[in-house]
Write a structure and sequence with these properties.
By secondary structure, the chain is of the alpha/beta class. The protein contains four helices and four strands, in the order αββαβαβα.
């Protein structure tokens, strides 16, 4: 599916029930002049495009974003909200304790399903 869509998944895994889950990693790992993570509109656009393209080849698997920046205002924030309403399943800030707890709960729920 990925090759047909021209997309490369950062992480592809399966739940214990056999459901494939795609993880896109958008993190800022170095000090640069760009905002990084999902605060960078280029990163948001690429993740939206990848999720959309994967979905064009049948039922789209859950598409989860792992990042260290989720914007709360500006154009990137609007794009993120729209993506969460359409092509992304969820987004987690790996530097936020509540998001990490939520991600662990999701993993535990999927494992027990």
């Amino acid at each position: 599916m990925f090759a047909k869509a021209g997309v490369q998944a950062d992480i592809s895994g399966w739940t214990q029930t056999g459901v494939e889950v795609i993880f896109e990693c958008k993190v800022n790992t170095a000090e640069t002049s760009r905002p990084g993570g999902l605060a960078d509109t280029d990163n948001v656009k690429k993740a939206i495009a990848d999720a959309f393209l994967i979905g064009t080849f049948g039922e789209a698997p859950p598409y989860v974003i792992l990042t260290n920046r989720i914007p709360t205002k500006g154009r990137a924030a609007v794009m993120v909200r729209n993506a969460l309403d359409t092509v992304w399943t969820d987004a987690f800030n790996v530097d936020d304790e509540d998001d990490v707890r939520r991600l662990k709960e999701l993993a535990a729920y999927r494992a027990s399903s």
